[in-house]
Amino acid sequence: MALRFETVKILHVYKTYVPEDFTGVPRVIHSIAEGLADYGVESRVLALYSERLSGEQFRVGRHSVCPARRDFEIASSGFSVSAFHKFRRLASEADVVHYHFPWPMGDMLYLTFGRHRSSLVTYHSDIVKQRRLFRAYEPMMHRFLKGADAIVATSPNYLSSSAVLERYKEKVHVIPIGLPGRASVDEDLVEYWRQKVGDGYFLFIGALRYYKGIDTLIEAARQSGLPVVVAGSNDKGELDIAQLPKNVVYVREVSEADKEALLDLCAAFVFPSHLRSEAFGVALLEAARAGKPMISCELGTGTSFVNAHGKTGVVIAPADAGELSQAMIHLDSEAELRRAMGREARLRFERLFRADTMNQEYLKRYHALAQRKRTEIPER
């Protein structure tokens, strides 16, 4: 007989979602929504879309997406007039509203129509780049975080290093980001990529953004002379393809299946992000899941929680091409060390970063917050 679970209705709130965005935060939302569907969790996602997709509610797997039209952007953050009306209705039907921070529009939605709903905030990252705008936004941010019923940090490292989270640590819980188990690798794709880029290279995968440290990686490749493969969207022009040294191959953005094939062939995964905007590093999780040693930078964020220095790989100072070059040379020359670190990376993934583990922790928080809503006066 199938088990039955108490139904909990969750509304996720974030600036982007699939199919327009399936990186970072949207991937986490998708994993939670799909992973908890068998446990009585009915999930909806309110996100902003271009006009082409901003019409009726649609399904993604076993959950629903409620799109609102993106009217304009300020500092890469979307805003929408229609989202207020949609949020008011959707929040009234939810047991818990799950906000994904940072997104200033989410703060505004909470402060206008969300304060009487049970609320959970996953604090994915500090605001790092827009310092001038942050000073104007900061009072609203603190009203939002102060009012939230519970806050989740994605690593103990980020909780201990974020000045913002320090103010609310009495209601912060740590729930690391998790991924599902690794899909089987397509051997035909492995052979395709072997013919195209070879094997035994250092691999970077990710969207090429200002905080990814790509310039440092290219300079380290020049210094070391070791083969490097870079895969990811270059829509912001962070990588000058015409100026790449001969030992660096850029293969653009790749599919999930191609990603696993490239991971299969690489000697190690390199992740040179140098700013706190890199709050966790899901790409590191993918490398750990594939049993690969890693090189990353110490940022005081989740990257050093995923990559444990001396155990699963090497952690270096940020924006230091010389140190990165030396770390690459060291791993390249020590095959047994690479294998040992790769084994430990895989074990650490299984122990700490499975999607099932993350989802069950969120399920506990959802039930606790939903029960609070049901036992309190409806309008607080």
UniProtKB/TrEMBL annotation:
<keyword id="KW-0808">Transferase</keyword>
<feature type="domain" description="Glycosyl transferase family 1">
    <location>
        <begin position="196"/>
        <end position="347"/>
    </location>
</feature>
<dbReference type="InterPro" id="IPR001296">
    <property type="entry name" value="Glyco_trans_1"/>
</dbReference>
<dbReference type="InterPro" id="IPR028098">
    <property type="entry name" value="Glyco_trans_4-like_N"/>
</dbReference>
<dbReference type="Pfam" id="PF13439">
    <property type="entry name" value="Glyco_transf_4"/>
</dbReference>
<feature type="domain" description="Glycosyltransferase subfamily 4-like N-terminal">
    <location>
        <begin position="24"/>
        <end position="178"/>
    </location>
</feature>
<dbReference type="GO" id="GO:0016757">
    <property type="term" value="F:glycosyltransferase activity"/>
</dbReference>
<dbReference type="Pfam" id="PF00534">
    <property type="entry name" value="Glycos_transf_1"/>
</dbReference>
<protein>
    <submittedName>
        <fullName>Glycosyl transferase group 1 protein</fullName>
    </submittedName>
</protein>
